[in-house]
Specification:
binds zinc ion, four-stranded parallel sheet, Rossmann fold, globular, two-stranded antiparallel ribbon
């Protein structure tokens, strides 16, 4: 073990001692045998929500790969989903994970989301061999406010878990508004105008798996897919942590 690895181990041990891991949803202290990020009770209600049927295909959310017309228009025919996103109802554990992921730079939330995405991708009917993992970039405003791009970190973890290469393919221009709070038409317009190719992008002939945390209209995801196909990508698939069912 290198000195750096040893130091990282000591440091993360110290962090666990000072801030013992707690359930991101109910705050209960986790024991080493508990699953990552959520206590067993919250994890079981999370798992129950993933079994809610998709309104379009009737399959459980975790087995549904349906795409909206917007995504199909962008050449995406498969979206793997880990959990249902129910803003008006209750999937409190998924929402707590998303909050910690987006606002608290939580290592546990990132690891949990990456693991759930890996399960969702492995459940897809077609194999993912030969794909490169990439992600929907966070808006500049979000990066300024919170100091990081959560899906950049999660997509790296996911690529590692799936044994696939990873690439940053898109960036957001400074004029991007937060998608949250815009209506559907405004989201599509905003995403189209502000998702730009990353410097040095070479997508010709490649297959990409684009990942994001939440899928609502799919405008940002569609904008990244459009950009990749315009740059010559052979195929684009997607995986999201939480999808509005
Ligand atoms: Zn809990
Ligand atoms: Zn479906």
């Amino acid at each position: 073990m290198s000195l750096r690895e040893k130091w990282n181990k000591v440091r993360s041990g110290a962090v666990d001692f000072l801030f013992p891991p707690r359930c991101l949803c109910c705050g209960k202290l986790l024991t080493p045998s508990d699953p990552l990020a959520l206590c067993p009770l919250c994890l079981s209600s999370y798992a129950l929500a993933a079994r809610l049927p998709c309104r379009h295909c009737g399959r459980e959310t975790a087995d549904c790969v349906c795409c909206s017309e917007l995504l199909v228009g962008a050449g995406v025919y498969r979206v793997a989903k880990a959990a249902a996103y129910l803003p008006d109802e209750t999937n409190a554990p998924a929402q707590a994970v998303l909050f910690a992921l987006k606002r608290e730079n939580s290592r546990d939330a990132k690891a949990f989301v990456a693991r759930e995405l890996a399960h969702a991708v492995r459940r897809m009917p077609e194999k993912i061999d030969g794909f490169t993992v990439t992600f929907v970039p966070r808006g500049q405003k979000g990066i300024r406010a919170y100091g990081y791009d959560q899906m950049e970190d999660v997509s790296r973890l996911l690529a590692g878990a799936l044994g696939l290469p990873w690439e940053k393919t898109a960036v957001r221009s400074g004029q991007a508004k937060e998608q949250k709070g815009l209506d559907r038409a405004a989201r599509i317009e905003n995403a189209k105008k502000t998702v730009l190719p990353a410097p040095g992008l070479n997508a010709a002939g490649k297959r990409y798996l684009v990942v994001d945390d939440v899928l609502t209209t799919g405008a940002s995801l569609a904008a990244v897919a459009d950009l990749l196909r315009f740059a010559g990508a052979a195929e684009v698939r997607a995986a999201v942590f939480a999808a509005r069912s």
